[in-house]
Design goal:
CATH topology of the largest domain: D-Maltodextrin-Binding Protein, domain 2
Structural class: alpha+beta
Strand content: 15-25%
Helix content: 25-40%
Distance between the termini: 45 Å
Length: 571
Amino acid sequence: MDTRRLLHRWGRFSCALAIALSTLYLPTAGAQTEKPKYGGALSIGTNSPTLAPLSWDPADWNYKTAQDAGLYYDRLFIADFAKSKAQGGPYLFKSDSYLPSDAYKGDLAETWKWLENPLRLEVKLRKGVMFPEKPGVMAARELTAQDVVYSYNRLLASAKRLPDFIDHVEKIEGPDKHTVVIHFRHYHEDWGYRLGWGVFSSVYPKEVVDAGIADWKKANGSGPFQLTEYVNGNSQNYAKNPLYWGKEKIGGQEYKLPFVDRVSIRIMKDEAARYAALRTGKLDVLQSITWTAAEELRKSAPQLKWARWLQHGASYIAMRTDTKPFDDVRVRRALNMAVNKQEIAAAFYGGNAEVFAYPQHPDFGAYYEPLSAMPESIRELYTYSPDKAKKLLAEAGYPNGFTFKTHICACDPVMMDLGPLVAGYLQKIGVKMEFEPLEQGSFFSILRAGKNNPGLAYTNSHGGPTTTLRKNFTQGQYTNNSQWNDPVFEKKMQTMYRERDEPTRQKMVREMTRDILEKSPYIWLPTAYTYAAWWPWVKNYDGEIYAGGFWWGPVHARMWIDQDLKKKMGF
């Protein structure tokens, strides 16, 4: 399809609309002052509304488990929601894998301290945290240090673990019932994510493993909810854990969590059905709404409340640097210059995107460096220059261009539309990109095996400021889609990981990011804004998504329903 026709299709709303959306749908500020009410049910279309659970076993090392099992498993640390924008703080808590160094607090951990010679982290656990009774699985009992040790050691022993992920840990032990000691071979700056509040940090009882942890019917944990029903392809349903220990301070008073009796996570693959469910009150919250749908919903359901944020995930075209012609940096830079990224942001996204927000994200503070601060050699990659692109191709030995195949996931509707648009730009410099769509299972199997085509169209999360560099550009990572292999870069990564001083580490990350951008293993594409909406009867919520790595359960536990207001509004 012609590039301009595609842009016209997506650009039917003007930039004026984008400005209106950005002002209308900003999160509200100020702490929650209403007195919470207990009871009721919460129905949520999450930030991953189309995806069913992929595993219930944390040792499968599947990120989705952190979401689905995160309502009934606890972790050592958690986001400090007192520092959220809603409470007058600086943070949105939208990132799937990043918490700023001053924005987490203890969850199962009551206190912790670093000890030297040898380097170790000593964690004192909360007393009285209980696993509830689960008939046929276990009797109710207290969570102890041995549960933490068992969970982590099971991760360490898993054949599915990510390479090098916990190799900085020598051993984990529980010298007494409420003390966990993590012995480090060396300091690792990502210790909090990897061991405390990240995707693979859940703590669970051995009894569940013995009963069959892969079976959702055996699920049991110390978190705020208990999994009561899973309807494949439809919903996951949870009930309040009556033994949950957590509390939340609201208006100066402390309240026991969770507030709601039940939570239903809805799985809805049809976009129109999701919006209809929100509009009719069948969903209380929908956390993933496109900019095009936001304006229509504002008109049809004007009482909805809104939040807008820059996605923690971006689209790109990876180019395999171990395959010709992408082993030549001139070719990779040429393809970047051939794509009009400003036009994509303005027309395809209707102004609801940032041209430069990957691999680093503006929410990462001093780890992020804006495009305006970058050298010209990087800025020119974001300037549409087809003539310069043709010249670089000719210098690389491809004056007439070339053809390459690109894998693309049929599960990614945005990329399925954006990919042909990028192909249209490349065709103007003689480069033909042929797409090979795959269903979700096949697509991720190819990724994990590193057998993707020379091109790969993908939408990938940022993770954190160091995670994004590790998982995209180091060997052995299944999202290293360009098969990037740079021993110098790998050595810099290891040095950066061992650096304890954060300002020094931030400077190192900025320099490494510049290096990757210069060498362009990806065609860098804009990062979109997205929207969340909820009904006014949903309280103590301002669009937050995660309390740690893909961990949304604690967010749901803090929300409550004003049932009187819901009835008054006719629902």
